[in-house]
Design a protein that fits this description.
- The chain is of the alpha/beta class.
- The chain has 11 helices and 19 strands.
- It binds pyridoxal-5'-phosphate.
Length: 369
């Protein structure tokens, strides 16, 4: 594969330090789900720890277990599974677990009884995202059962948490609404004598824009990888540094006449004598096909070039112009400090930078674990 994905782990550590300054007093959980948003699970986890993250978070339980196997001894929370767990492995690995239903709670309790140790659990309240977690109506019943199991010494309820729907739109009315529902949930836990160690609600956007919603712990993901989730009112990037760069090298540079159609379907035609550059990566390498037709750009020698014509499976073409100094072997930056950002790609192809990072990151060789 001719695509090169570089991950600047120092940038991840520095971003976590920056987020800690914003979190002021709250602990930081580095969210490393989805292979660290494509940056590598183990490396991202290590970098987050180096930056001062006292927690790591993964959606997939297998990723939490992989962090432990790689030697991470800190607090790790995992949250996305049904009643099939894998709870025995998670209990044995001392992973904090989320639950949002009686069925999952009972399944965790069985594994805990079998192991003879009481795992630490976080009750996920659906305060309005309409995704994971227990709706408020069912919360009293779930809390009662959780308290019973805690009193029997089977589990420890250490956390209550939730997730925001509109955090990337500061001022959206649902943010305060969700916070209010969360407070109701916390009160219900308090009424039952459940003493919580950590209450947590804020993702990256809320970490940066809603200090009143930090509670005991914040859970930044995208910001840790250097992508600002919301506009910085100071006109900067919140001091965040992108950690991923994506590059390749020009495979071919050649002269063509005016009127030359370029790539499948000849969607682009040269309007003058010019030089074409062949970039040897395509949609099989994560380059969105929707970026063709001039929508997405790459940088060569510090200059931007739109993609000329369609993106193919393994390659695409740029029109370098007649006077170009670019030659075969020159570096082509798809994402990087001297080229387009993940956000530029997202805008070009109609998605969010999260998907751009996961897509390109998915092509990284998994040599770490
Ligand atoms: C992904 C995720 C986060 C991190 O979100 P960002 O927007 O990347 O900061 C936090 N909490 C939960 C539950 C998540 O699923």
């Amino acid at each position: 594969m001719s695509i090169t994905i570089r991950i600047d782990t120092d940038a991840i550590a520095a971003n976590v330090r920056t987020l800690r300054e914003h979190a002021d007093g709250a602990q930081v959980m580095g969210v490393v789900k989805a292979d660290g948003y494509g940056h590598g699970l183990i490396e991202s986890g290590r970098a987050a720890r180096a930056g001062g993250a006292t927690w790591l978070g993964t959606a997939q339980p297998a990723e939490a277990l992989a962090l432990r196997e790689a030697g991470d001894t800190g607090r790790i929370l995992t949250w996305l599974y049904g009643p099939d767990g894998p709870f025995p492995a998670l209990v044995a690995a001392d992973i904090d677990m989320s639950f949002g239903s009686l069925k999952v709670l009972e399944a965790i309790a069985s594994a805990a009884r079998a192991a003879g140790t009481a795992p630490r659990l976080h009750l996920f309240v659906d305060t309005g995202l309409g995704r994971e977690g227990c709706p408020l109506d069912l919360l009293p019943e779930l809390l009662d059962r959780a308290k019973e199991l805690q009193d029997e010494g089977v589990v420890r309820i250490v956390g209550m948490w939730s997730h925001l729907a509109w955090a990337d739109q500061p001022g959206h009315p649902t943010i305060n609404l969700q916070a209010t529902v969360f407070l109701v949930g916390l009160e219900m836990a308090d009424e039952r004598g459940i003493a919580l160690e950590v209450r947590h609600l804020a993702n990256s956007a809320a970490t940066l824009t809603r200090p009143d919603l930090h509670f005991d712990l914040v859970r930044p993901g995208i910001a840790m990888y250097g992508r600002p989730p919301v506009e910085d009112p100071d006109g900067g990037d919140w001091g965040l540094v992108p950690a991923m760069s994506v590059t390749t090298r020009l495979a071919l540079v050649k002269p063509v006449h005016a009127g030359q159609g370029v790539s499948y379907g000849h969607e682009y035609t040269t309007d003058r004598e010019t030089m074409l550059g062949l970039v040897p990566v395509g949609y099989a390498d994560g380059v969105f096909r929707a970026g063709g037709g001039g929508r997405a750009q790459v940088a060569i020698g510090g200059r931007r070039y739109p993609i000329a014509g369609r993106v193919c499976m393994d390659q695409f073409v740029v029109d370098l112009g007649a006077d170009t100094e670019a030659t075969e072997g020159d570096e082509v930056t798809l994402i990087g400090a001297d080229g387009p950002s993940a956000a530029d790609w997202a805008e070009a192809v109609g998605t969010i930078d999260y998907e751009i990072l996961c897509r390109f990151g998915g092509l990284r060789p998994k040599a770490d674990s």
